[in-house]
Design a protein that fits this description.
By secondary structure, this protein is α+β, with helices and mostly antiparallel strands. Helices cover about 30% and strands about 10% of the residues. The chain is built from two helices and two strands; from the N terminus they run αββα. It has helices at about 15-25, 70-85; strands spanning about 45-50, 65. The protein is elongated, with a radius of gyration of 18 Å. The protein binds zinc ion.
């Protein structure tokens, strides 16, 4: 199986551009991320629409506008959390190092 089938874009619905435009308009074309002091992120350019929870749930309630910085920060914390929950992926990293590798 070609591994391009796991491309995230392929999971987006055909009317994604309409959904995306609606979410951006709802959020006032401003990032919904929070700054350290609790205020709303002031970024209004380079915005991305993020899935808050389930990546396959494209309803408005599961979508939010984030700037690329907040989107990356969220994705990074999610993958860290996933790594803590799951045992190490054997394909990515052998459970034991090769005895010849020192
Ligand atoms: Zn932001």
């Amino acid at each position: 199986m070609p591994w391009s089938s796991s491309n995230r874009r392929a999971e987006l619905p055909p009317d994604w551009s309409a959904i995306r435009a609606r979410v951006l308009a709802r959020d006032g074309h401003q990032c919904r991320g929070r700054m350290r002091d609790g205020s709303r992120c002031p970024t209004t350019s380079g915005l991305e629409v993020d899935h808050i929870g389930d990546r396959h749930d494209h309803t408005d309630l599961n979508l939010q506008t984030l700037c690329s910085w907040h989107h990356k920060a969220k994705t990074r914390s999610e993958s860290l959390a996933a790594r803590r929950r799951r045992p190490p992926d054997r394909r990515a990293r052998p459970a034991e190092s090769h005895p010849g590798l020192k």
